Amino acid sequence: MAVFDRMRDRLRGQQPIGAAEEMQQIRGARDGIQRNMQMDGMLPGGVPTMGEAQDPAQQTGRKKRGTVPLQHSGASIDGLEGSLTQEAQDAYMLGRRMGLESLAEMSGQSIPGEGAGAGGRIMTKERLNSAMNTLLRYRSGKSSVNDRIKKSQEWWKLNNWDVIERMMKSGSLTEIPKATAWLWYSIISKHADAMDSYPEPNILPRVQDDEAEAKQLSSIVPVAMEMNDFEKTYSAVQYQKLREGTGAYGVFWDSSKAGGLGDIAITKVNMLNLYWEPGVNEIQDSRNLFFTTYVDKEELYEEYPQLKGKPLGDKHFIDQYKTDDNLDLQNKAVVIDWYYKKRMNGRRVLHYCKFVGTECLYSSEELAMQGDEDLMEGYYHDGNYPFVLDTLFPVEGSPAGYGYTDIAVGEQIKTDLLDDAMTLNAIMRSRPRYFSRQDGGINEEEFMNLQKAIIHTNSNLGQDSLRPVEVPDLGGGAMNMLQHHIDAIKYITGSTDVVNGSTPQGVTAASGIAALQEAAGKTSKDSNKAAYRVYRELVYMVIERLRQFYSVPRIFRIIGDQGKKEYVQYDNSGLQVQQIPNLPGQEPGLRLPVFDIEVQAQRETVFNKMANNELGVQFWGMGIFNPQLVDQSLMLLKMMDFRGKEELIDQLEQQGTIREVLAMVAQIALQATADKPAIQAQLAQVLQGVAADIGMQSGGGVGGMMDQSRQSMDNSGNMFGRGQENAIVSNARDRVQQASRPA
Prior knowledge:
With 743 residues, this protein is an alpha+beta fold. It is 46% helix and 15% strand. The strands form eight sheets. A five-stranded antiparallel beta sheet has the order 6-7-8-9-10. The two termini are 67 Å apart. Residues 10-83, 110-115, 696-703, 708-725 and 735-743 have low confidence and may be disordered.
């Protein structure tokens, strides 16, 4: 243990290490720790030393197989507290320290705690001054946002006139704002409809062998999306779609997640940064696809030291939104993600290159040529670009479409102009202005001050000394035209008053209101169906990321069949290529598990919830849940169409089967205890309790079945009567035969 003691002293700054043989002992101790950790199953792979160069695949978001980098905090290792001894933790920290020293010697830089400043301090005055300058630069860029926030707070506190007076004194309120919010309201109304129909997947197998895997995926895929806060992403993309005409998702593999194991990342993509081949209708048909981002130069230099002193390309060719912040691009560089498809071995594979300027930071094709077996199948094995576009109104020749802003902006402009003219006319009529002769002798200050009871003049007042400015009345035609353009916006965007809860005059029947709302909401339903198709593509991509990268088991918390929390372990073994049993005279084949995805709304509107609840009450009143009416109930339900019908049919079939089995048990018990009335009574009570536990009504439960069983027995004690099989037993046998047949 002496070597670990010296290592601990080294960390505390008490004793240097300089002997080569002692270094060899340290390396051996480190290797022993790795071997023990692998043998104990604590890690799925080895622990890399901090001195080793980082794999380029990890720098670009690609998973490095078989290696799990450990995070550190103080003298402990996250995720392994309590698993390693203090000596082992000290050994790991020393290895990290030595790795930093080696990197510092190669780069000529200092490491934290040594030579960082006077007394070995990291936060020197120069570094703090640099941080202060950065803060002031950020503050200057955020000044307009702060002004808007402060004004909003004053309006909220009803101090609006203070704001107006300050704006008038400063000259910033030279005219009345002309913008109205009718188009804005239509968009947020459509967004509310989209969120009311938030989707969830139901993954179905295409072959019977994949039923268990499909059931697991139906529970795990929503959890994986929830871990990405997908509801927030979905909301942001729906706003993007409604405003701009196209929303964009990205489904990537992020190797920095899960402590270095990597995990799926689903993000909203800025359409201004995405570039495809002109003339294609689908981005998957584009030969190349580019995604650009601004990255701080200092961050690039830290991650890629080889970029220092090299040109980083033109940073001004990316289009930017007009924001409230003042953007400073002086210290930014454009990093380009280049995805392209290339035909290899008779099929198209997807490759990925990351570069800045003319400097390549990562290339999956180069690594594949160097022998990386995983990348020989492409960067993503499904061969698709990791982007999905959700188009509102598609157009030919482009994967991007039109939004509500594009089609309704004309009516919005007319509405703004008319509203501005009418508002100005009303203000001029409510605050009259006057013509005054220069020799009229009127004290204008006293005339304008409403607190003055007396107004002085220098001469006799004539009829023409002061004359009001006449402002014509616009009349009702202007108001009708303004309302016409407002209604046009509502009809164009499908946000009519009926959709928003209002009803036409004279319509009072609930069925009539429901019919109007159903007809008025067709545009929202059409948009939601398009969003569901895009969501289906997203789920397919998530499954492909699971198939490619989930080689290490993960633990998921899911909701089980009974609505209870369950913890399950999952990996991609069930998604890999599987062997098909060979048939007589045929060679064994291979198949890849493929699934169908059914998308449905996760949430229901209040109206739909009330309708579903009312439907359940009607079923109860009709006797649908009565075990004695199972056959009739099943015939009725199979003719109907509502959500949850399959589950209800399954439950009724199970209830009917259980009742028939209990009837058979009652018949057998009656025959066996024909001469023992006391035992018959006790047995009836037991069966009655079982029936109550499974929800069977007492009136038609076991007591009724016992009576029916007695009537079915003939005088000779034959339980089936007249030598024929009882109808209940026959039905039960038919049900078992049907259930046992393959679908």
